Amino acid sequence: MKGSTIPSVAIMPSPLFLWRFKVVLFLLWGLCCCKIGWDSVMRMSVDLRDLFLYEAFLYYNPLLLVALMIWLWGVNLWVFAQSSVNYAKVFDLAQTHLSHREIWRCATWLTLIVPTSMTAYLYLYSHGEVSLAASQPVLLYAILLMILLSPFDMFYLSSRFYFLRTVWRIILPLQAITFPDFFLADIFTSMSKVFSDLERSVCRMVNRQVATIAWFEADSICGSHSVAIPLVLVFPYLWRFFQCLRQYKDTKEKTCLFNALKYSTAIPVIFLSALKYHVYPDQWVGFYRPLWLISSVVNSLYSFYWDIKRDWDLRFVASLHDDFTICSAFHTSILLLLTSFDLHTCSILTRIFMFKNPSIWTNLLYGQNWVFYWVLGSNLVLRCTWTYKLSAHLRHNYLTVFTIAALEILRRWQWVFFRVENEWNKMTAKQNLEMSSDMPSEGDRLLDSSNHTV
């Protein structure tokens, strides 16, 4: 019709193009940060270069580990969404809970902001702007804290409130312990080194020691010999310990006491290590270091046993009895030597990777024997190396400690899959049992039918 207008259609680029463009921008940003940071470090004197790299690493490495944990949590949620595990019901989440895409968006921003601040810190200090350089980590920490505690309806208020409420319940376990409470508390135990470094960083900010060499004295208030280091390291284990005691008070199950004992075995590892700086060298070598090694072995093996026996509820059989079984007699014999498990039924270790829709990940992971070996072997090895990051006397090897802390986060990410699936299996089994108990038996139905008149 003459004079009629055709509605305009917005032209949008394809999602694939946008994703590729974002990846290119991300790589360019990463190259710029690396180039500026490297040039800044090379401008420093050789004597101070390693010291200030260590200081910069201290301020920013805990936030990088937090970003890694958020990225991996997004992967967990993606796998749960593809499989039959209803994680929203497991964690009692509202309908507005964050999806894996929103989790990844948060991780992306944190991954961008933290290295940018670190690059600015190195650049400003190397160019003589010491006061501006010192302000960079302070501003970063302050901004992130304000975002986390902001009462305004922005930055996912409901999710932040859920997280903060759970943290409060962890710190003060005065109520019945729910699955989200001890699940997050378990994750906190894997991030104890993160909390310790955050405390060291805040200590230096409060005492105005950022971008100075005053804190390099080991016996200073923010030095590496401070008693605050083992205290902060032990807090996550104490929180989990008291949660177990609270669970025992509510349920009277003895397994809660054994679980509390597991967390208590981390306490000697932490404090015996810290004693190195407060006893004579011959006392450390002859008495305290052997005790530290023994306590480390006990903690690692006990934790490994509890992971696969209780948290994952893996049970094994000596024969292949169905299509889903991935255990063989050889698997079982090895595990008997390591863990002395009861042999009842075989837990389907890789069922979490049986997605609703066809996927390459299902073909790669579901029902594969190598996953069985990898999960148990890597969990055992990383449980043993885990004690390294709990040891205050090994903190000077900061790159090694960072690597082990990152590996511990990867181990915890792997643990999450099977822990959440185990909880979901328990919930569905309980629901099925309740439904079957509510249904009348065949005899009851026959008796009821005899009362009917035709």
TrEMBL record:
It is a multi-pass membrane protein. GO terms for cellular component: membrane. Its main location: membrane. Keywords: Membrane, Transmembrane, Transmembrane helix. It is found in: Membrane. This is EXS (ERD1/XPR1/SYG1) family protein.
